[in-house]
Amino acid sequence: MISEQLTEIYKLLLNHFGPQHWWPGDTQFEIITGAILTQNTSWANVEKAIANLKSAHLLTPEALHHLDTPQVAELIRPAGYFNVKAKLEIIDTGQLRAELLAVKGIGCETADSILLYAFGRPIFVVDAYTARIAVRHELIDPDADYEQLRGLFQSNLPDNVQLFNEFHALLVKLGKEFCRPNPKCQGCPLEELPHCLEQNYS
DNA sequence: GACCAGGCACATC
DNA sequence: GATGTGCATGGT
Which of A30, A71, A72, A127 has its CA at a distance of 20 to 30 angstroms from the CA of residue A78? Predict the structure, then answer.
């Protein structure tokens, strides 16, 4: 059963890597900002952009609202796609998924990251790592779309915010170090995951 | 220098 | 509906 496999993977990852304490960020707005800035961008670059905003005391919706797009773009330059991301603006807190998705620049993953990590909703976040790992462990069809992937996790796991939070963070941790797009190791069968982890991280 | 990073919108076929 | 392309910095 998929649910047993997912639970086993979760236990292995948690045991191996420990809690990831996601999402990094001191405030709800910082989490939302990070979710947008990290689109197709390494977290190290996002941290630089957030540091710029913080040191300028601009990491609030009100402060950013008073700047024009080029000013914001310059501050978030290290995060890449700065002209695109600078136009983006989340006004309200507690928005529904459909409302988030209606904002240009917010797609499924960003919306779900905001819902789970900023608003504590039980939504499983699917990112490139999650998809890659699920496919390589043959938990889902390679051409599955975002909603199918989200369904894989949500319908086979208990509806638990803390579980969704930790599991996604652990998948990213695994993916970053292990499950590259064009890696020497293409991923291993589930039964070999403990061995793979042991070999690669011990 | 190629490849990749916690994507997304839009054009075109 | 599927596929391609622009957006962009910075680390390996």
Answer: A127
